[in-house]
Write a structure and sequence with these properties.
2,3-Dihydroxybiphenyl 1,2-Dioxygenase, domain 1, 8 strands, 2 helices, 34% strand, alpha/beta, 2 domains
């Protein structure tokens, strides 16, 4: 029974379906600086799949599907609430994003952990969070 508590070792990847593949690819690679692992076009689905690496070994998968429906984010809907990125300096990354033309919410402090955090959105209004680095 003890192995059950350690069976999940981390997050391998998060999959995101975007409305404008090129715009989202630019956002996640050029602006957020994620490294491209692989990019494939799947003709049978008329869809791109872009695998992106984060420094901790986890990945984002970016998909394009024609005519995919928009998922509501605001007001908060059931389901995945947001994707949070561990950063060394919330202030520095926030300022960088603002210089890139990305709207960033004011920085707040988590009342339970004392860590700084803020939110911004990707090109499809997916809520993304910057969270002051935590020990892994």
């Amino acid at each position: 029974m003890g192995w059950v508590y350690n069976m999940l070792k981390g997050i391998h990847h998060v999959a995101i379906i975007c409305s404008d593949y090129e715009k989202s690819k630019d956002f996640y690679t050029r602006i957020l600086g994620l490294e491209i692992i692989a990019e494939n076009y799947r003709a049978t689905r008329d869809s791109y799949k872009l695998d992106l690496a984060l420094p901790d070994g986890s990945q984002l998968e970016l998909f394009s599907f024609p005519n995919s429906s928009k998922r509501p984010s605001f007001p908060e809907a059931q389901g995945l609430r947001h994707l949070a990125f561990n950063v060394e300096s919330v202030e520095q990354v926030s300022q960088y994003l603002i210089k890139e033309g990305i709207e960033v919410e004011p920085i707040r402090v988590d009342e339970f952990t004392g860590k700084k955090f803020t939110f911004f959105s990707d090109p499809d209004d997916l809520p993304l969070e910057l969270y002051q680095q935590c020990s892994l």
